[in-house]
Recover the amino acids of this structure.
């Protein structure tokens, strides 16, 4: 939201001032970007450096947006591989428990049945359930009572014995991560109304005056502020909640490393399942 109405330009009448103020206050991001582009044209003859400033801002916005798109794609990828790993983990556990159960049923239970017929399942729980296996060197991760019931009694347990589908997407380098190339207008729209209104009002007010020469300096300074992530909840000009370029680079490198590690862990589980 724009601040209390000030003069939009020294030459405007009160009526013109209010009309322009109302238009800027109600303009969409797209309309504000169009105004910025028009003002850049009007500035260029007297303030040539204005183009350089906005070209640099566009470049930084593009790099940051590309990295942010990359981050979202990497997060989606690691989420899919985490789900795949979880499914393989249950598949491996199900195999271990099921094999042990079948061995018990065929080789150990007949002797136990003659002494105490609890039924094959309850006998297995008594022999290998985590609450009863002290000193038996049985991995609790496989044989806790809940896991045994899950993989043997659960009506959907048969699904645990199917190897899940491998994720379709895997990145072998950060350069493999796709991104959508945005046009200049889309990039500037992304900085939001508050910042665009700030740019428009300051450029418009100083248009045609000696103070116009200061606008590139002011905007360049403000761009440096925008380059850093803001932790504040209230929106003010040239602030963003998006991480900085350096933070995004670091986060993306960590995500890519996690994907590589998770793929390796999944392949190790597949080897266990196949053995």
């Amino acid at each position: 939201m724009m601040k209390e109405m000030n003069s939009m330009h020294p030459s405007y009448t009160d009526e013109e001032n209010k009309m322009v103020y109302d238009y800027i206050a109600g303009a969409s991001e797209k309309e504000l970007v169009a105004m910025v582009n028009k003002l850049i044209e009007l500035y260029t003859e007297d303030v040539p450096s204005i183009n350089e400033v906005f070209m640099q801002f566009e470049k930084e916005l593009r790099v940051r947006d590309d990295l942010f798109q990359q981050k979202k794609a990497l997060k989606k990828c690691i989420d899919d591989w985490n789900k795949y790993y979880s499914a393989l983990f249950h598949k491996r556990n199900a195999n271990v428990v099921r094999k042990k159960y079948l061995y018990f049923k065929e080789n150990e239970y007949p002797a136990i049945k003659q002494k105490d017929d609890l039924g094959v399942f309850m006998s297995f729980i008594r022999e290998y359930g985590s609450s009863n296996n002290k000193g038996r060197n049985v991995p609790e991760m496989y044989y806790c009572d809940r896991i045994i019931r899950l993989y043997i009694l659960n009506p959907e347990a048969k699904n645990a014995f199917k190897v899940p589908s491998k994720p379709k997407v895997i990145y072998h380098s950060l350069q493999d991560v796709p991104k959508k190339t945005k046009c200049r207008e889309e990039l500037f729209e992304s900085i939001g109304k508050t910042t665009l209104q700030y740019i428009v009002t300051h450029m418009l007010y100083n248009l045609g005056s000696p103070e116009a020469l200061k606008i590139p300096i002011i905007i360049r300074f403000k761009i440096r502020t925008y380059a850093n992530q803001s932790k504040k909840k209230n929106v003010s000009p040239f602030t963003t909640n998006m991480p900085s370029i350096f933070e995004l680079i670091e986060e993306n490198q960590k995500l890519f490393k996690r994907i590589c590690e998770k793929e390796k862990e999944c392949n190790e589980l597949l080897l266990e399942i196949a053995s």
Q: What stands out?
A: The mean pLDDT is 85.
